[in-house]
Write a structure and sequence with these properties.
The chain is an alpha+beta fold and 357 residues long. It has helices at 18-27, 57-69, 73-88, 133-141, 159-208, 221-230, 334-339; strands at 46-48, 54-56, 99-100, 213-218, 235-237, 241-242, 249-256, 263-271, 285-291, 301-306, 326-333, 343-344, 347-356. Strands 4, 9, 10, 12 and 13 form a five-stranded antiparallel β-sheet that branches. Strands 5, 6, 7, 8 and 11 form a five-stranded antiparallel β-sheet that branches. A three-stranded mixed β-sheet has the order 2-1-3. Helix 4 packs across helix 5 (159-208). It holds the Pfam family zf-C3HC4_2.
Length: 357
Amino acid sequence: MDPNKTKSASEGIAPMGITSLNETVLSNQPESRYECPVCLNWLRDPVITTCGHKFCKSCITSWLQFACYLLNMEKIFSHVSSLMAVLQSRQPMLSDALDVVEVPTDEDTGCFLMNAYSEIKINNDISNASIDTKEQEAMNLWEAPDKEGAQAAAPLTNTSTLIRALYERVVVLEQRNREQDIVLANLTKQLSALAVAKMKQNSDMLLRYCAGNYIWRVDNFQQRLDAMLKDNYKMLYSPGFYTSPNGYRFCVRLNISPQNSLFFALHVHLMKTENDDCLEWPFNGRISFAMINQLDAERTQRDTMMSNSNLVAFQKPSAEICLRGFGYTEYALISDVVRNGFVKNDVLVIKVTIKCV
């Protein structure tokens, strides 16, 4: 095939008669659930064993009579096993009212076709089609009393069969319950992961589309302050926010002033983005700080500064965050921040506005 040859596509139309031909061929072949495993034809006068297998009444009767007359029992059991290999490959499904046939018993063979079955009439109800074999067996062996308190029908004498059927039914239900628990646990994990991913996505969207107006809420402030007072090299950094969706990215740093431990230092740092090659360097703009007084808005501390293109802090960052910041080394007294209404519910609020010029 020439890969360079131009190919054209067009709408395909199925030739006339193919659909009807397939339906005609398939309609002459019985479905497996309506097929007798002995004669391989449509079921005639069907009977069903309590294990859920169906036969023509004449076929199973003739086969059992033939088997009983054979002298070599090993051949009988081999034939039974071969037949049951065919039967087990089919999924039994109850769709019509079938008689339960009684077959001979032989405990040495281990073949379930040779177990004794009771002669029971299965209720002619289409709902039986959705009931599996063990459940149908248990329903046939015992009938619950009606709502008027009438006595239930006397249970059959084959108690061991009833107990076995009920036990197997309980095992199946427990297995299904376990599988449902696993499915629910997996769904719960997936939902939790989706919720976390959704929260992160929303947070990232707010940071990218804040247009350079970022409000930093420092929670657990007292605990963080105590840690910084014990170690003056510990610093708090805000998440990175953008001046525009594809613009400059900044973060804010709050720490104890290295020059005077009674003061907070407050700086901004440029951060690397995927669009740095498309931006103009160095950064030129106006930077404003506002430490919000949450008890008296008039006492909010506001400061504004202009960038300096000669400083390394405003050059294109070569690392994830520029090591040089720009701001105030003695921005506010720690005692004033703690006592004068800047901290409420253990939260300090700092608003930062960065505009390009």
